[in-house]
Prior knowledge:
Helix content: 55-70%
Strand order of the largest sheet: 1-2
Largest sheet: 2 strands, antiparallel
Order of helices and strands: HEEHHHHHHHHHHHHHH
Number of domains: 2
Low-confidence stretches: 19-36, 94-100, 213-224, 346-360
Strand content: under 5%
Shape: globular
Amino acid sequence: MLMVVLGHSIAESIMYHSPAPDLIVFGGAWIDSVGLNNIPYNLIASVYMPLFAFVSGVAGSGERLRITWPTVARRAKQLLVPYFAWPLLAIPLWTLPTISKDLGGWLESIARMAIDPRASTLWFLYAIFVIQVLAAVVTSISENPRFLVLSAVAAIAVRLFLTKNYFGAQDATILYPFFCLGMLERRYGFLKQKRWLWAALVAYPVTLALRWPTIVDVQRWWLAPANALLMRVPRMPGPVAQWSVDITQYLAIYVLAAAGIVLLYNLYRKMPRPALEFQAPVGQRTIGIYAIHYHLIYALLGAGVTSATLLFLISGSVSFILTLGIERVPVASTLLLGKPARKWRTMAPGAGPGTANGGALG
């Protein structure tokens, strides 16, 4: 969650400060091609949403490779209710560009959110629910891990032919393979093996080199040799060779994100216990922080706070504090956080952080 807040803070700060008029859409924010040269932002954006999906897969599945339909029903309450409830607050608080001040525009925005979740900054909640439905369908057919892997490969292929994001289809097919990776890790724990760590250490810089020129519209020296090699394959027609380049860079998106996940996952496992206990409360309140921080970023920009560091620190900490308050109010917690209200003391004596009433994204 901290990576998401940091990524959005950097992105919005870049947009505010950049003098370039040519805007492109990237990572859900409007950012210019000059600003996208920001190295920290590119590194974060290459992995943070797939990482979110991976964590949801780890947390949302059990020892069996199965997502049950009762689980899907619970996820509908935990994810879709907050997804549609938060825009109610956007009428008096209007800071999001996708919500209009007038009632008619607000209702139209709700309708757009139902059809295409990219009309909302909370699109990830919708996408994770769709992914849960897909996983329930797949695992109800077979719990064989090979079948799950096959479904993930199919999602990668299907994404190539999707031109619209109706009902989150594009978002779900992009993130579904990483959710499956999380399910497989929960069941088998294979990513802890050194061979996967070494594979990630090699794959990450290689695929980052392939993807960087498409993430940032600036020529990079390493792109020319790769394209030249693919375009000069003997007896391969020019269009086919160009298609090979496009497919290679498309697949590099998934490999890059998967490699980043493996590296961050193993780094997380090496963190000392005090650090894990410190960040656990943040992980338990992902929906609240996710929903609130974007409002705060826009409000802070309007107040003249444009530093990415300050945007991150203020929006992250204030959204955490506000979530603590919301989860104490039964109606607000149910509607905005998708879970029952927390009492002031919910942990039994001796229980550690993270054992009570965790977040709902998993």
